[in-house]
Write a structure and sequence with these properties.
single chain, mainly alpha, 9 helices, globular, binds iron/sulfur cluster
């Protein structure tokens, strides 16, 4: 059993250290939630890779939530390195094979963090409930939507489109950090390193 109360408490104590929670790195997720949640997410990722779970699905959840960044030709999330927090939890019945109780515990932790919005009005907390992303980063979405649409229409090579979007996402994160005077190293802002397609959604 995971210590859900500790994970939620860790998150709530640390969330205000971050200038934005729209697009986050693995390191930032680990800093926010602690080791147990990080290990559980890693287990789900391994399961997905070994069983080709998301590979075989093609991103139905991304399409169904209306994510502005979704285009099936990408083959995986175009901002995989910076994907939003909820995208990492795999609240999906195709992951039951990795352990249904694990999925349910992660769901409880996520909902516990999200419930804090009721008594603590924080833009970072509200931004947990994404995608869609436009409400929290409208300029980024306006900038990348033409590329996403071009990939959907077959007018732009998916790899090229994904690299453009990832660069824009990295710049968005850097701009947020500069605006708040954040120490990039402490908060894990990483260099762009698109690692190809088809590994995970
Ligand atoms: S989590 Fe993976 S398998 Fe489930 S709907 Fe999303 S892309 Fe498909
Ligand atoms: S993983 Fe998240 S951000 Fe990436 S395409 Fe899917 S829904 Fe959008």
């Amino acid at each position: 059993m995971m210590d859900k109360a500790k994970a939620i408490d860790d998150f709530l104590r640390r969330v205000d250290r971050f200038t934005q929670l729209v697009l986050v790195t693995d390191e930032e997720v680990s800093l926010l939630f602690g080791e147990e949640v990080t290990a559980a997410m890693a287990k789900l990722d391994r399961f997905s890779q070994e069983e080709k779970v998301c590979w075989g699905c093609g991103g139905i959840c991304c399409r169904d939530v209306g994510c502005e960044l979704y285009a099936s030709p990408f083959g995986q999330c175009p901002v995989h390195e910076f994907r939003p927090i909820v995208c990492r939890f795999h609240f999906c019945q195709r992951f039951d094979g990795a352990g249904k109780s694990l999925i349910l515990e992660l769901r409880d932790i996520f909902l516990g963090c999200l419930t804090a919005v009721d008594f603590w009005d924080s833009a970072s907390l509200r931004s947990l409930d994404i995608p869609p992303l436009a409400e929290f980063c409208p300029e980024l979405i306006a900038a990348v939507c033409p590329w996403v649409q071009a990939v959907r229409d077959g007018r732009l090579d998916p790899r090229q489109g994904a690299n453009l979007i990832l660069q824009a996402a990295a710049e968005y994160r850097n701009t947020c950090s500069r605006a708040e005077g954040t120490d990039d190293t402490e908060y894990g802002v990483t260099a762009v390193a698109q690692d190809g397609f088809g590994t995970e959604c």
